[in-house]
Amino acid sequence: MANSKKLTLFGLIGITMAFFGTVRSVPTLAITGWTQIFYMLVAALLFALPIALMSAELSTGFPEEGGPQVWVKKALGEKWGFVTSWLLWVQMFFGMVMVASTVGVLFGYVINKPDLSSNNLFIFAVILISYWGVTLLNLKFDMVKIAGNWGAIIGVYIPFVILVVLGVIYMFKNGIQPNSYLGNFKASDLLPNLGDLGSLAYLSGIIFIFAGVEISSVHANNIDNPKRNYPIAVIASVILLVIFNLIAGMTVSNAVPMGKMELANITQPYMIFAENLGIPTIFVNIISAMILIGVLVQLSAWVLGPSKSMIKVADEGNLPPFFQKRTDKNIPITFVLIQAIVISLVSVLYIVVPDVNSAFLIITITTTILYCLVYAMIAISAIRLRYKMPDAERPFRLGNKGNGLMWFVSLLSMLSVGITLVVSLIPPSILEPSQYTGYIVYQVVATIVMVGIALIINKLKKPSWKKTEVVKASSKHDNDDQIPSSNMGGLQS
């Protein structure tokens, strides 16, 4: 019976892609024109691949429930393990608002009301409805099972393929458009323009495409043949993301007129392709509905993921007993409801910030900054555990002997994190000069507050918070025939 609960290689790739694969990020990539090739390679080689390789070793070497929080705790102690879980949880307050904002844009096109995509009140209302909707569904059903199967296929893979095919046909028919983001090519366009530092901020948005590359590590206890399948699945997911995003990004860059890119509106290029190629407008309605499913799938996949780590550290005494409550399906109900409430409050930004493009990019960058802090701790932990626990069995190991390769990968990851944090504090060129100071202050304060809250909670924790019975019933439940939704491992082969 246990084997029926094991993830296959295809299932694991599917659920990993569902975590962070979406056409939603294509406009952020496309707006950089030819420079996207450089940005994408930097993001993949310096950021995603090192994190994926370290996560592959850490998750198969230390496969306990909790993923990154467990690795950091073993390496750096309980305080930083808690901070890791906290950051992985709070980053979604910003990230999921940004993701959910695209639901309103897409829904407007589904019902032939594209003007709604620029209506801030409508976007705000749809964020509330969509996020609370997927939250309530996750309390009743195993939505991750859906996310790893048909949801990702309908909402991610098919739209990506259609976008690329139409983009290539458009390019063959019309060539490189002189008024597009690819027009008037010069060799210097392949590298960032250091004279326009604001354009470097887009690198942070592009790196966000790969944020979550390590999250599938929570499945380490539920993978069929982890020694072989986990590293293959994560690395394959990174490679597929590079290919899909770069081809899609280039074709969209060629179709959208310079200065007209709408970051929150992935439907825009489909409309241009359909009109130019004589495709009936109902096609745009259908593809918008499909992408809408993909976005809802992504929201659903993230509802329970970070909460899984948080419930573990709550049980260990890092948070009061109120946070340790579970439903009869073992779902960390307190965290799930708190995050839905806070995300509702954060979504008010879409009312007070008049420009949807600016709000979208700013929130994306905030999420990336918080994620980078986690990745810095993962990189430090990976090398620290090589010396602290050298004899631990590592089914997947970076390098057959010695620690040289691990040092290289860890330092490469730290370098990429440092670069990302620096460019994230450069005000994007999309902002007005009068907004630059406010932007920098916001990013710095948001980061300090998010980390500071975790450190304060850790300082105030009491011995009475620790769960006296180390969730024996829950542990049994984890191994029963019914795999809990909070384990994010309910996908059956």
Automatic annotation (TrEMBL):
Listed InterPro entries: AA/rel_permease1, APC_superfamily
Keyword Kinase listed: no
Q: Might you report a single GO cellular component term?
A: plasma membrane
Q: Name one Pfam family in it.
A: AA_permease_2
Q: Where is this region: Disordered?
A: 471-493
Q: Give the UniProt keywords, A-Z.
A: Cell membrane, Membrane, Transmembrane, Transmembrane helix, Transport
How would you describe this protein's topology in the membrane? Multi-pass membrane protein
Listed Polar residues bias regions: 482-493
- Mark the transmembrane ranges: 35-53, 86-109, 121-139, 151-172, 200-220, 232-257, 277-304, 333-353, 359-383, 404-427, 439-457
Family matches, as PANTHER family: AMINO ACID TRANSPORTER-RELATED, GLUTAMATE_GAMMA-AMINOBUTYRATE ANTIPORTER-RELATED
Q: What is this protein called?
A: Amino acid/polyamine/organocation transporter, APC superfamily
